[in-house]
Amino acid sequence: MSWTVADAVDYKGFPADRSKTGGWVPAALILGIEMCERLSTMGIAVNLVTYLVSTMHLPSSTSANIVTDFMGTSFLLCMLGGFLADSFLGRFKTIAIFAIIQAMGSGMLATITRLPQLQPPLCKNPASQTCKQANGFQMGILYVALYLIALGTGGLKSSVSGFGTDQFDDKDEKEKSQMAYFFSRFFFLISTGTFLAVTVLVYIQDEVSRSWGYGICCISMLIAIIVFFFGTKRYRYKKSAESPIVHISQVIVASIRKRKMDLPFNPRLLYEDSAESSRIPHTDQFCCLDKAAIVDGEFDKTASSEPNPWKLCSVTRIEEVKMMARLLPIWATTIIFWTTYAQMITFSVEQASTMERSIGNFQIPAGSLTVFFVAAILITLAVYDRCIMPVWKKWRGKPGFTSLQRIAIGLILSILGMFAAALSERRRLVVAKAVGGNTATLPISVFLLIPQFFLVGSGEAFIYTGQLDFFITQSPKGMKTMSTGLFLSTLSLGFFVSSFLVFVVKRVTGSTDGQGWLADNINYGRLDYFYGLLAILSFINFAIFLICALWYKPQKPNGGMEMETMANGSCPEEKC
Fold first, then answer.
1. Distances in Å between the alpha carbon of 151 and those of 139, 229, 492?
2. What SS3 state is found at 236?
3. Which runs of consecutive H residues, i.e. helices, occur in 310-402?
């Protein structure tokens, strides 16, 4: 066995020594910075809506949109981070730079919540609708802090999983098996960071001080950055390559140039220059792209120079683009799940803030209700790993559900979650009407909201692992970072769709006095109708997803084509 890793270098640029670089020690340092990122981002996001309503005195719908826009931008910027990492900076520098930016944003947010000049005057009863809202300057400073955090989160998150897998050589059987465990531990630590955020940090924000809570986010990220730098000499680095976006553009441009030409009857006559071991077999879908491989009179096969890729592309390059194109219908039909997820950290938290949350002398912070969401994720993962997978393997001979099956289960659970949310909100509104909408704490237990948190949380456990598995294993080897960004963009668009729906519903059902489905005070609104609308939209989306899943045809791997298998073991032949 060679002691050097073929496609990796050390911090000096020399071929990476297997015995001195990579493995679990540097991977653990990378996982540490991801856990602190999750602690920081979720520690801010899950309780931000209560701060905007109770301290900044904003309407509930406006507050919800600020949170969803913040989270949506965070995940959208993953695309920017992935592009910079792949084309210019490399993953190590990208993580370091954007982690520092996120720490700066968290520190700025801690300062803002400490200074009374950056907040409107105190108001004893925000539900009375007579409180003075934050002015433009105060909101502007808050937006700067939030979007610094979003920029840092996006750039950091795009590269963490990729840099972690760089520490394992997929050509070595032992390290390849360790890479599979890295994915499961990666998601476990994300959930652990979220769990600490919605319990410890939210409690500190509500019971001690917002500035202390956000300050802890900043300090934890700074510590993680320092620890991350300690591993500089132990990391394996991959050199930046040409962006996959350029490859895709070349295929599209070349096919447009030759759009009037006829395809040859035999696909073997199309241009191919890839090594035999790494070729991807030709497929019939998206045949219009095949025109990019038509050899015309301008190209001389006997010439030693490479053809202009903007005029002539190989079949393998075209098939890589086709593989990415096949992902798009599945990508589009998973966005709505993250729209329902957005309600768990916005309107559901606001629901909790109006309900009885006491256990003896202890009052549960409204934002901490998302602990049931995180618990549902951890319980679902454990049950799936220890109970469902062994039974499924014994019954069907497969180690677990395919990625498309897990996505389908997640979508079904989100539909049930929204129906449960509509029913619980209807019950809460009955109580609010009986005792008066301006009552600060309604005489109804907050535990009524557990079903919606649990159902959507279980859905996330299935759909997150299913999406991550699907987008990594079903994408070309050279476009896996881009496909990961494509997956994370579904989270981003889900939050933006939530903001759009809130805007539309507010405009269609609202009135000049702040009433409607999404009233300024949710005790006077019909949030149950909004949840019902989401349930109906999710059901329609699920039907479309089934059609797309049946249409999807996975690329059959050639001998040299790598299709990694996740820890739960989905196979290349995906069937829903």
1. 18, 20, 13
2. coil
3. 315-332, 335-344, 347-353, 371-383, 389-396
The answer to whether residues 17 and 4 touch, using CB atoms and an 8 Å cutoff, is yes
What's the sign of the alpha-carbon dihedral 122, 124, 126, 128? negative
Q: At 237, is the secondary structure helix, strand, or coil?
A: strand
DSSP string, 428-456: HHHHHHHH-TT-SSEEEEGGGGHHHHHHH
Kindly provide the b/e burial profile for residues 317-344, where b requires at least 16 CB atoms within 10 angstroms of the residue's own CB. bbbbbbbbebbebbbebbbbbbbbbbbb
Please name which of 81, 97, 94, 91 lies closest in space to residue 235, comparing C-alpha atoms: 91
Task: Give the CA angle between residues 427, 433, 435 to the nearest 5°.
Answer: 105
Please give the helix or strand (H or E) that residue 127 lies within, else none.
Answer: none
Q: What is the C-alpha to C-alpha distance for residues 467 and 325, in angstroms, rounded to an integer?
A: 16
d(CA 460, CA 475): 22
The answer to whether residues 469 and 406 touch, using CB atoms and an 8 Å cutoff, is yes
Q: What is the pLDDT of residues 269-322, one digit of tens each?
A: 898 888 777 788 888 888 899 999 998 866 655 555 678 888 899 998 998 899
H or E segment to which residue 89 belongs: none
CA distances from 49 to 36, 134, 156 (A): 21, 14, 24
Identify the H or E element spanning 8. Answer: strand 4-9
Structure pTM? 0.79
Q: CA 343, CA 213: separation in Å to the nearest integer?
A: 23
Determine the Cα–Cα distance for residues 77 and 84; give it in Å rounded to an integer: 11
pLDDT tens, 308-321? 888 899 998 998 89
CA distance 510 to 108: 35
Sign of CA dihedral 420, 422, 423, 424: positive
| CA–CA dist 113, 146 (Å, integer) | 12
- Which pair of structure tokens corresponds to residue 102? 């996120």
What is the spatial distance between Cα 331 and Cα 493, in angstroms, rounded to a whole number?
Answer: 11
List of E strands, 10-137? 15-17
For the chain, the average pLDDT equals: 84
Distances from the Cα of 515 to the Cαs of 98, 344, 422, 534, in angstroms?
Answer: 41, 22, 18, 20
Element (H, E) at 365: none
